[in-house]
Amino acid sequence: MSEDWRQGGFGLYVHWPFCAAKCPYCDFNSHVARTIDHAAWRNAYAHELERSAAETPGRVLNAIFFGGGTPSLMEPEAVAAVIEAAGRYWTLANDLEVTLEANPGSVEAGRFAAYRDAGVNRVSMGIQALNDRDLARLGRIHSVAEARAAFDIARNCFDRVSFDLIYARQDQTLADWQAELTEALSMAIDHISLYQLTIEQGTAFGDRYNAGKLRGLPHDDLAADMYDATQDICGAHGMSRYEVSNHSRPGSESRHNLIYWHYGDYIGIGPGAHGRLTVGGNRYATEAPRNPQAWLDAVRKASGESERTALSGIEQAQEFLMMGLRLVEGVDPERFAALAGYPLPAKAVSELQDLGMLNVGKTNISVTDQGFNVLNAVLGALLAD
Amino acid sequence: MTDLDHIRNFSIVAHIDHGKSTLADRLIQSTNTVSAREMKEQLLDAMDIERERGITIKANTVRIEYIADNGELYILNLIDTPGHVDFAYEVSRSMHAVEGSLLVVDSTQGVEAQTLANVYQAIDADHEIIPVLNKIDLPASEPQRVKEQIEDVIGIDASDALLVSAKSGLGIHETLEAICKRLPAPTGDRNAPLKAMLVDSWYDSYLGVVVLVRIMDGVMKKNDRVKFMRNGTVHQIDKIGVFRPAMQDVAELGPGEIGFITASIKQVRDTKVGDTITTEKKGTDKALPGFKPSIPVVFCGLFPVDSAEFEDLRDAIEKLALNDASFSYEMETSAALGFGFRCGFLGLLHLEVIRDRLEREYDIELITTAPSVVYHIYMKDGTMQELHNPADMPDLTYVDHIEEPRIKATIMVPDEYLGDVLKLCQDRRGIQLELTYAGTRPLVVYDLPLNEVVFDFYDRLKSVTKGYASFDYQLIGYREDNLVKMQVLVNDEPVDALSMMVHRDRAEMRGRAMCEKLKELIPRHMFKIPIQAAIGGKVIARETLSALRKDVTAKCYGGDATRKRKLLDKQKAGKKKMRQFGKVDIPQEAFISALKMDS
Ligand SMILES: Nc1nc2c(ncn2[C@@H]2O[C@H](COP(=O)(O)OP(=O)(O)O)[C@@H](O)[C@H]2O)c(=O)[nH]1
Ligand SMILES: C[S@@+](CC[C@H](N)C(=O)[O-])C[C@H]1O[C@@H](n2cnc3c(N)ncnc32)[C@H](O)[C@@H]1O
Ligand code: SF4
Ligand SMILES: [Mg+2]
To answer: Is A84 helix (H, G, I), strand (E, B) or coil?
Structure first.
C-alpha cells in the first residue's frame, strides 16, 4: 500500500500565479501584478526543486506541467531552468511530457519557439470561446482572431497542442454550442478540454450571481443536454471523452493530468500549489501559501511548503476514487480496498448499477454515460459513510 | 401579618400588548418595591422566552406595599396571569385566588378577543372590576369611545374608568388609590383551621418545588407540618415568604395573604393546582372545590435530529416536565425518524415554547412532526380509543365512527377584512354561530374543528387581516364527522411522520397541496420519485419528482484533491440534515413545511 503511488506515476507541477488581467469567472490562484521580479521567481523555483528532490531520490519523472495563472508570461529562461534542474534531480522518462498553459494573446505567441527550445513539448491554450461577444462577456482580453493566430503559431512549434473552451455560458443555446463545438473540432489537433462554466464563490461572477444579476445561465436540464451533445459530437470526430471534461485522440491524453486521475505522486511548487507525496511509507498532502509574495518570503526563509498532512488509508481511498472515476476507463476496486482496508460498499455499487450509473466488472468499475452527468451524486452514494 | 382590611388581591386582565406588563412595572416602581438599580422592564416576565415574545406563561406574583392618601399602609398582591389562549386554565385558577381585577384596555384599540375571554373569567370568579384605559398619552387615544364599547360589549359600568399612561406614569397614583378604595378586602378567619389554596407550583433548580399559596383561613408558619388534601401527603415547610418580586422570607402568612412555601417536594407533578393545604393535625376537613386539571389538546412528535441525542432529549423533557404539569410525553418510535417522544400541549404556543426551550436551553436540534389533535375513535365493539397520533389509526374495518374536538372561536376584526375572515372560517369547515358588532367592530363567533386551527389558522388569520384581527377560543366538545387518515408515500413507501387525519371532502385538496410541497422540498435524486397521497389503498393525489440531471464538477483544480474531499464532506453534512426513507432523503423541514396550507 505504501507504494500505491507507483500505479499513477510521478509528476511535477509548477504554479505561476500571474495574469495580465483577472477573468471574472476564475478562482484559480492568479493575480495581476504591476512588476514581477523574474530573477526572484527563478531562484525560488530552483530552491523548491532542490528541497523536493532531496525527498524523492532515484524516481523517474513522467511529466512536468507549468500551470497558472498564465505561465506564458514566464521568461523562457525560467522555464528552461526548471526543466534543466528536473533533469539533474530525477531520471526523466523517455516520453517525458512537458506542458505549458498559454493565453492566446499576441505577446505570448512570440515566445512559443523559445519555450520549445527550453524543452516544452505540449501547449494548452485558453481559447474559451469562438465568438467575440462571448469572449468579452467572459472578460477575456483577446479576440477570436488573435486566439486563432496564436493557435496557428503554437501548432507550428509543437506537435501536441490542446485548447480549452468554456460552455454553458450566458444566453448560449444548445444549437449555438453544437455549432461552436463543431467548428472547434475542425481546429483541434489531438486534445481538447471542454468545461461547463462554473460559478465560483468569491469571484466577480459569483458576486453577480448572488445578487441575481447574472442572467441567462442554462438550467440543469439544458446543461445536461449540452453535456450529452458534447459527447456525441466529439465522439463523431474521433475525440472521445476520456475524462469528465477532457477529450483526445487515443494515446494523446494529458499524461500529467492522468497522474492526478490515476492517483500518482506529484510535487507541487509555487504559490497555492498542492502536492501528493509518498515518503517513508506515508502519503502526504502538501500545500503552499497562496499569496505570491508570502510564498516567496516563505521560500527565502526555509520552505515554500506551508502544510503537510499525512493522509489516512481511508482518505487516500476516497481521493483515489474521486479522481479515478472521472476517467472513462474507471478504477480497479481492489486498489480502493487495499487503501481503505474495506471494499467498496456492495449495496451501493449494485444500486448504482441498477440505476444505470455504473459499469461493474470483476477488476474494474467505471461510470456510464448517464453516470457522468451526476458523478458527484454517484461518488456521494459510494462514499456515504 | 396584616389585618384583612389592609390587604387587596388583584390581577390584571388585558389583550396582548395592551400594556399589562408595563402597568405592572409602573405599580412596582412607583411604590419603591424594587430599587431603581434592580428595575428592568417587564419585571414579572421571568423566562427568556417570555421576555422575548412578550408573553407571560406562568402566573407571577408580586407583593406591593403602598401608603395610601389616608395615611394607612396597604398590602397589594398582584398576580400576573398569562394572556394567551393556550393558558386559559392557568388564568382561571389565578383568578380564584384574588378578589378583583384591573381590566386594561388600550384606548387606541378598544376591546379585543382576548379582553373578552379574560374578562369573562374575572366575572366568573366574582371579581370587582376596575376598567383602566391605557395609552392615553397617544394621539389616537379615544377614551370616550372605548368606555362606551366596554359598556356595550362587556356590560360593565365604565363611567369611573381610570385614564392611564403606563408608559409615562400618568394615572398610576389614581390606580393605586382605586385598588385600595374600590376593590374588596379578602375575608377569612385567623382562628379557624388552616385552609390554603395551591395556586401554582414550579421547579426551581436551587429550592426544588416552589408552591404559590393563597391563605383562606388560619395561619401558615415555617416548620409547620402541612397536608396536601388531594392525596394526603404531608410535608414540613422549609421556607415561607412573599415575592417582591424577589423571594423574601416572612415568619407567617395569614388569611388573605399570598406567598410561597417550599417543603422538600420532589416534583411539580406531586402538587395539584387547586388543591387545599391544611395542617397535619387539627386541620380542616372541608377542601376547596379545586380546579379541572388542564389537559393537552395538541400532540406532536419530537425527535432528535441526531439520533445519538435521544437520551439527552429524554433528560431534557423529564426536566421540563418537572416544571410543567400540563405537558405530557411518552416515547414514540417512527420508522422514519427513529426514537423520540409524542408530546401533548395546551396549544400551539405552548408547543412552540417547549420546543424552543428544548432547543435553546438544552441545545438539542429537533424534528417536530405535524401537530395533531386528539380524536375519539369509536370501535364497532362499543369501545372508544383516543388517537393522539395518526400513525396509530386502527384498522378501519373495526372502526364505527370518529369524533373530533370542536372549538368556539371568537374573532374581532375591522369591517374591511370581515369577508376574508368569514371565508377563512368557512374554508376550515367552520359553522357560524354569531355575527354581531362590538361598537363598530364586527365580532364573529364560529364553531370550528380544532384540527383545522392547530396548524396555521392563526398565521393565516393574521395575514388575511394584516394583523388586525384578534382571536380567542375555547374547547366545546367532540363531534362526529367524516374523517379519514391520509397517508403519504414517497417512492412508494409510506412515510408515517407525514400521515394526517383530514376531512374526507378536503382530502384531495390537502393531498394535492402536500404532494406539490414535497416535490419542492425534496431534492432531486438519481432516479425519479413518485410522491403520492392515499386514503386506504386509494391514491388521491400524485406528483413526480424528476431525476437529477446534472451534478458534476466540470474542472479539476490541478492536483487539489483536498478540495474534492471537502466537497464530499459538505455533501455529507447536507445529508445529515435529511432523513432517509427507503432510498430517498427527505429534509427535516419538510415534515413541518409540507403541512402548511396556503388557503
Ligand atoms: N405609548 C404608550 N405605550 C405603551 C403604554 N403602555 C404600554 N405601552 C407599550 O405597548 C407595548 C405592549 O406593552 P406590554 O406591557 O408588553 O403589553 P402586554 O402584552 O399587555 O403585557 C409595549 O411596547 C409598551 O411599551 C402606554 O401607556 N403608552
Ligand atoms: C487555470 S486556467 C489557466 C488557463 C489560462 N490562464 C487561460 O485562462 O487561458 C485553466 C482553464 O480552466 C477553465 N476555467 C477557469 N475557470 C473556470 C470556470 N469558472 N468555469 C469553467 N471553466 C473554468 C478555463 O477554460 C481555463 O482555460
Ligand atoms: S482564466 Fe486564466 S487568464 Fe483568466 S484569470 Fe484565470 S488563470 Fe488568469
Ligand atoms: Mg406582557
So the answer is: helix
Contact B553 A357 (CB under 8 A): no
Relative to the CA of B45, which ligand 1 atom is closest?
21
List the single residue in B with minimal CA-CA distance to A260: B559
3-state secondary structure of A297: helix
CA neighbor of B559 nearest in space, from A48, A258, A312, A25: A258
- Cβ of B568 within 8 Å of Cβ of A273? The answer is no
Question: Checking DSSP bridges between strand B7-14 and strand B100-106, what pairing results, if any?
Answer: parallel
d(CA B411, CA B311): 42
Close Cβ partners of A43 (under 8 Å, ≥ 6 residues apart): none
How far apart CA B135 and CA B108 sit, in angstroms, is 7
Q: Tell me the torsion sign for CA atoms B300, B302, B305, B308.
A: negative
Q: Please, which residues bridge with residue B477 across strands?
A: B406
Cell 394621539 identifies what position? B139
Is A4-259's fold the same as A313-385's?
no
Mean pLDDT in consecutive groups of 10 residues from the start of chain B, 599 residues = 88 89 90 71 53 51 93 93 66 86 95 84 91 97 94 90 96 97 96 93 83 95 94 94 90 95 86 90 87 77 89 90 79 83 85 84 85 92 91 89 93 90 93 87 91 80 80 86 93 88 90 91 94 93 94 78 82 78 83 62
Sign of CA dihedral A370, A371, A376, A382: positive
**Starting from the edge strand earliest in sequence, which strands make up the sheet with B7-14, in order?**
B60-67, B73-80, B7-14, B100-106, B128-134, B162-163
Cis peptide before A69 (omega within 30 of 0): yes
Chain A 3-22, CB below 8 Å of chain B: which residues?
13, 15
Query: Which 306-335 residues of chain A touch chain B by CB within 8 A?
Result: 315, 318-319, 322-323, 326
The domain spans of chain A are 4-259, 313-385
Closest of B8, B41, B357, B416 to residue B182, by C-alpha: B8
Instruction: Provide mean pLDDT across the span A251-259.
Output: 95
CATH number of A4-259, picked from 3.80.30.20, 3.40.50.2300, 3.20.20.70, 3.90.550.10: 3.80.30.20
User: With a 6 A CB cut-off, is B54 part of the ligand 1 pocket?
Assistant: yes
pLDDT digits (tens, 9 = 90+) for A194-205: 999 999 999 999
Q: Is A126 helix (H, G, I), strand (E, B) or coil?
A: strand
- Residue B557 makes CB contacts below 8 A (sequence gap 6+) with A28, A274, B563
> For residue B558, which residues of chain A lie inside 8 Å, CB to CB?
13, 15, 65, 67, 260, 268, 273-274
Each residue's pLDDT tens digit, B268-279: 778 888 899 999
Question: What is the identity of the amino acid at A78?
Answer: A
With beta carbons less than 8 A apart as the criterion, state whether A324 and A333 touch.
no
The set of cell numbers assigned to B125 is 370568579
Q: Which residues of A214-239 are buried (b: 16+ CB within 10 A; e: fewer)?
A: beebbeeebbbbbbbbbbebbeebeb
Instruction: Provide the percentage of residues in chain A whose pLDDT is more than 90.
Output: 91
- The CATH code for residues A313-385 is 1.10.10.920
Q: How far apart are CA A323 and CA B559, in angstroms?
A: 10
Alpha helices in A158-284 (DSSP H): 174-187, 204-210, 220-236, 255-261
Return the residue whose CA atom lies nearest to atom 7 of ligand 3: A69
Reported as a single tens digit per residue, the pLDDT across A153-186 is: 999 999 999 999 999 999 999 999 999 999 999 9
**A274-297 confidence digits (pLDDT tens):** 999 999 989 999 999 999 999 999
Quote the minimal CA–CA distance from B307 to chain A in Å.
16
Secondary structure letter of residue A50 according to DSSP: H
Task: Give the dihedral of Cα atoms A225, A231, A234, A239; nearest 10 deg.
Answer: 160
Of B553, B541, B376, nearest in space to B475 by CA: B376
